Amino acid sequence: QVQLVESGGGSVLAGGSLRLSCAASGRPFTNYAMGWFRQAPGKEREFVSALTWTDGATYYSDSVKGRFTISRDSAKNSVSLQMNSLKPEDTAVYYCAADADRSYGSINYFKSSRNYDYWGQGTQVTVSS
């Protein structure tokens, strides 16, 4: 079993930055893919970014590419999402997710929330204009 705990959400003005972190525990962290999703009120959960643990390959949705950066800290079993140039439309609850035994994939694979085995509780990000 894997437990995921997000932190770092908050409120920021448009153009500002936030850094989200996701700490994982419960199993040795090998052959995982980690993803970030978000869900705004009244909308479906959408893919933001993903990273494969073994080689550090990264994937981004078009809406955040160039503004967000996903990274890992192997020593801490954590993954982070640095969010820059935030926009009001980035306002959502952000979720961390883990796909066990996944060392490679494609963006189309990582976009589907059904491919993830574990989820965090979510952290709120609010961007005001």
Task: Give the structure's gist in a few sentences.
This protein is mainly beta.
Based on the model shown, name its key terms:
seven-stranded mixed β-sheet; 129 residues; four-stranded antiparallel β-sheet; 48% strand; mainly beta; 1 helix
Shape: globular
Distance between the termini: 40 Å
Mean pLDDT equals 94
Q: What is the count of β-strands? A: 11
Structural class: mainly beta
Low-pLDDT residue spans: none
* SS summary, helix count: 1
Largest sheet: 7 strands, mixed
- Cα-atom Rg, whole angstroms? 14 Å
What fraction of the residues are assigned to beta strands by DSSP?
over 45%
Helix content: under 10%
Would you give an account of this structure?
The chain has one helix spanning 107-110, and strands at 3-7, 10-13, 18-25, 33-39, 46-52, 58-60, 68-73, 78-83, 92-99, 118-119, 123-128. Strands 2, 4, 5, 6, 9, 10 and 11 form a seven-stranded mixed β-sheet that branches. It has a four-stranded antiparallel β-sheet with strand order 1-3-8-7, with no helix packed on it. With 129 residues, the protein is mainly beta. It contains one helix and eleven strands. Helix content is 3%, strand content 48%. Strand 4 and strand 5 (46-52) form a beta hairpin.
What topology does this entry show?
Blueprint: E1 3-7, E2 10-13, E3 18-25, E4 33-39, E5 46-52, E6 58-60, E7 68-73, E8 78-83, E9 92-99, H1 107-110, E10 118-119, E11 123-128
